[in-house]
From TrEMBL:
Pfam families: Bac_luciferase. One of its GO terms (biological process) is alkanesulfonate catabolic process. Residues 1-226 form the Luciferase-like domain. One of its GO terms (molecular function) is alkanesulfonate monooxygenase activity. Coiled coil: none annotated. It comes from the Bacteria. This is Luciferase-like protein. InterPro entries: Luciferase-like_dom (IPR011251), Luciferase-like_sf (IPR036661), SsuD_RutA_monooxygenase (IPR050172). Keywords: Flavoprotein, FMN, Monooxygenase, Oxidoreductase. It comes from Tengunoibacter tsumagoiensis.
Length: 284
């Protein structure tokens, strides 16, 4: 089991890139394995919003070992060729530590800017964008004529540090099946239970059902490769034995990344700083 921190990129001190980078440094010193930030642009969640890519750049400069990334980027509101450049630059800046979390997003972050709130359309755009990103990351000449994107006579260099490409984790709302099928084709799944509150987490039984469904969609070749199953969890950090026991329940059903869900519902980032400094429960 590996352990990460996930925080909003908005709201009070969560939106302060200098402070967040310092907290990420402290998380690395405390033994956490990853540090991830939300990717929102609207003030729907909180009035103060920082760009996640600049925030991740600051974190990359203050850390050496942590895996870094977005949880998650709604790619349909991005130009995939621009996103490709940003990710490869971050991969080089961090020495090959970037993970891309993806989803379709929705709601105000489309409609407030005059864009369609069409989940089916966004799912199509997400799938095509992922294919295009994979093509661009090869460093070979790309000519892409798709339903939503056209790229002609381009070659993107440098290639990512990570080969054959930057890992991609796919978000889903369990038990919706189409996102699980999409996730099966890539490097990991980030399920969130439908209707859960901000500090509620999927049960081990639901995580097991998700794991079994995703694995059933994979080819034997894909199933034989490493695959990440990410759980959004809450550990109080007050009873190490109880925390280890809870994590072990999830480990037994296929979860291999625990992302500690640090949000305003638990207080300011300053208030959660001591919790982060305590580190993960030490289950490996």
């Amino acid at each position: 089991m590996r352990f990460g921190i996930v925080i909003p990129n908005c709201g009070g001190d969560y939106a302060d890139p200098r402070f967040v980078a310092e907290v990420a440094h402290e998380a690395e010193e405390a033994g956490w394995d990853g540090f991830f930030v939300w990717d929102h642009i609207s003030d729907k969640w909180a009035p103060e919003v920082s760009d996640p890519w600049i925030m991740l750049s600051a974190i990359a400069m203050r850390t050496h070992r942590l895996k870094l990334g977005t949880m998650v980027t709604p790619i349909p509101r991005r130009r995939p060729w621009k996103l490709s450049r940003e990710l490869v630059t971050l991969d080089h800046l961090s020495g090959g530590r970037i993970i891309l979390g993806v989803g379709i997003g929705g709601g105000a972050e489309y409609t407030d800017y005059g864009e369609q709130a069409d989940n089916k359309l966004h799912a199509e755009m997400l799938d095509e964008s992922l294919e295009l990103l994979e093509e661009l990351w090869t460093g070979e000449p790309v000519n892409h004529q798709g339903q939503h994107y056209t790229v002609q006579h381009v070659r993107y260099l440098p290639r990512p540090v990570q080969q054959p490409r930057i890992p991609i984790w796919v978000a889903s709302v369990w038990p919706n099946k189409n996102p699980q099928r999409r996730a099966a084709r890539w490097d990991g799944i980030v399920p969130i239970g439908k209707g859960l509150g901000p500090l509620e987490q999927m049960s081990p039984a639901d995580e097991q059902a998700c794991e079994e469904f995703v694995r059933a969609q994979q080819s034997p070749e894909r199933a034989a490769q490493p695959y990440d199953h990410i759980h959004w969890g809450v550990l109080e950090g007050k009873d190490a034995e109880a925390d280890r026991a809870l994590v072990e329940e999830y480990s037994q059903v296929g979860v291999n990344w625990w992302l500690e869900n640090i949000t305003w519902s638990r207080g300011t980032l300053e208030e959660q700083r001591e919790r982060i400094r305590k580190g993960p429960p030490g289950v490996r």
